[in-house]
Automatic annotation (TrEMBL):
The gene is trmFO. The lineage of its organism: Bacteria, Pseudomonadati, Pseudomonadota, Alphaproteobacteria, Rhodobacterales. Residues 5-374 form the MnmG N-terminal domain. Its main location: cytoplasm. Its cofactor is FAD. Its EC number is 2.1.1.74. It comes from the Bacteria. This is Methylenetetrahydrofolate--tRNA-(uracil-5-)-methyltransferase TrmFO.
Length: 453
């Protein structure tokens, strides 16, 4: 059919784009190379498979930019948020999910939609005609990556992303560890005890840092450089920046009380978060790593409570590719040299599951409007969606463009509010109130049926 939308890639962005377009009555074909052609990070052929963390991060839609993005996606009838809510796990103020159940639900929902077809096989060349969205993510295949580079006249930029390890819960020593969310955050007891905590005293922390720095690391291939995204730094890279860095990052000991030793303040705390609904698997929060497998097991077993840990998955590292979007994409996320092709997701230079799915949502809606002969108004810059798309399609400095999470630094200031830490709560609330109003106005001007079942 001439009005079919073709989407390359069935990850977060591709899945959300397909849902949005199909919900608007547009036939969609998702071209997914898995499982026929796999990647070293994926383990299944499911759509929207989560390969790193199982968390969509903060769900606070009043004080957090990520939470506002959650709100906007829900308001738009987003599939990713609907399935995340259905399969959520306790995680304090965060939105974490049972990753396998989540991916299966997304896959089953899309395959059941009468307007969605999932076509297996790899596409390694840029399409010459039709309407397309390329949402191949950070693990774009070599063939397609080369085709994109040839078309844009420049090599795709790259950085390295690391995967955190997963531990079997029954191998954790709970006489040393305890369950608590920082500052007991959460509305239910389950939320307030969503994280598993392993304390370290000063000597244990110093020994851990020494072992981390000395451990064997993954070697890079010739010609590759380690341009890490700061929001996903391997722990050993953080340790190299200073021995106290981890204590002010993923191992910060604040907001926690060890019930085994309530009068002793830990020097550092390693947190683990439930990774599946059964509670049999826990991932080590913020512990992305490029250590070799043998070294990982040795170093992580130095953590109190993990001395006898068994690992369902050890950490890893992979190369992520992304476009220099400010120079290559227009404000509709179309490739300027081939406007029948849109890009969505992490390949556009956003970072994170939520941001990737959000750009898929926009790309799917914009493509659906185009195929329906409609012209939606510009995405409002004061929304979280608008702040992101504005950043990647022109707001960022092209010469220094790097992957970016959504954050309030991308938002236009609200007049009349105090700056600095003291005014932060009021300022963030003003951002989210304004963002919700702007986004809802855009949805009302270009409505789309809400279909989440």
């Amino acid at each position: 059919m001439t009005n079919t939308l073709h989407i390359i890639g069935g990850g977060m962005a591709g899945s959300e784009a397909a849902w949005q377009a199909a919900s608007h009555g547009i036939p969609v074909t998702i071209h997914e190379m898995r499982p026929e052609t796999g990647t070293f990070a994926h383990q299944t052929g499911d759509l929207a498979e989560m390969v790193c963390s199982n968390s969509f991060r903060s769900d606070d839609d009043e004080q957090n930019a990520v939470g506002l993005l959650h709100w906007e996606m829900r308001a738009a009838g987003g599939l990713i948020m609907a399935m995340a809510d259905r399969h959520r796990l306790p995680a304090g103020g965060a939105l974490a999910v049972d990753r396998d159940a989540f991916a299966r639900a997304v896959t089953e929902t899309l395959r059941a939609h009468p307007l969605v077809t999932v076509a297996p096989g790899e596409i390694s060349a840029l399409p010459e005609d039709g309407t397309w969205i390329i949402a191949t993510g950070p693990l774009t295949s070599q063939g397609l990556g080369q085709a994109i580079a040839a078309e844009t006249g420049a090599e795709a930029l790259a950085f390295f992303d690391a995967i955190a390890p997963i531990v079997y819960h029954d191998s954790i020593d709970m006489s040393r560890a305890w369950m608590q969310s920082r500052y007991d955050k959460g509305e239910t007891e389950e939320e307030r005890t969503a994280y598993l905590n392993c304390p370290m005293d000063r000597d244990q922390y110093e020994a851990f840092i020494d072992a981390l720095l000395a451990a064997d690391k993954t070697e890079f291939h010739e010609g590759e450089t380690a341009g890490y995204f700061d929001g996903c730094l391997p722990i050993e890279v953080m340790a190299e920046r200073g021995r106290e860095t981890l204590r002010h990052g993923p191992m910060k000991p604040v907001g926690l009380t060890n019930p085994h030793q309530p009068d002793v303040k830990p020097h550092a705390v390693v947190q683990l978060r439930r990774d599946n609904a059964l509670g049999t698997l826990y991932n080590i929060v913020g512990f992305q790593t490029k250590m070799k497998y043998g070294a990982q097991a040795d170093v992580f077993k130095m953590i109190p409570g993990l001395e006898n840990a068994r690992f369902a998955r050890l950490g890893g590292i992979h190369r992520n590719t992304f476009l220099n979007s400010p120079t290559l994409l227009d404000d509709q996320m179309r490739l300027k040299s081939r406007p029948h092709i849109r890009f969505a997701g992490q390949i556009t230079g956003v970072e994170g599951y939520v941001e990737s799915a959000a750009m898929g949502l926009l790309a799917g809606r914009l493509a659906a409007a185009e195929l329906s002969g409609k012209t939606p108004p510009p995405v409002p810059q004061d929304s979280a969606m608008g702040a992101l798309i504005h950043h990647i399609t022109g707001g960022a400095e092209a010469k220094t463009f790097q992957p970016m999470n959504v954050n309030f630094g991308l938002f236009r200031p609200v007049d009349g509010l105090k700056g600095g830490r003291r005014g932060r709560k009021d300022r963030y609330k003003a951002y989210t109130d304004r963002g919700k109003e702007a986004w809802q106005g855009w949805l009302d001007a270009y409505p789309l049926p809400r279909q989440t079942d």
